[in-house]
Design a protein that fits this description.
Blueprint (H helix, E strand, L loop, with lengths): L6 E5 L4 H17 L3 E5 L12 H6 L2 E4 L2 E4 L1 H9 L5 H7 L4 H26 L7
Helix pairs in contact: 3-4
Amino acid sequence: MDHDARTRALYNGDCPVCDKEMCHYARYSSKAGLPLAFEDLNKVDLNDWGVTADEATRLMHVMHEGTLYVGLDALLILWEQMPRYRWIAWLIKVPGIYQTSRAIYTHVIARAIYNRHQRRVARGLVKSA
């Protein structure tokens, strides 16, 4: 765990969608020398984050300068730290777009990813976090 990183992202490395996206961001931030760290919830002590494995699996979590952000707000903080993605954060923060995006992320995208993960757990393809 890189406690020196200004921003730390917690993700589910057993989820193909999450793993692919976070590995992409990790490669980008490493090449750009950005103070970001990416932590697989299956390989870290979640007590350091103050969340349960189920909470961490359901929604994105980002620790930025000592403050924990969850869900779409976590993604926005992460994108704001990466020059290539700042425009996405700026666009989503526009009033009206933010509220709609937050609802879609929480109730559609994150829920679908979580449910897919739970089906993979039920079939024995991965361990329950």
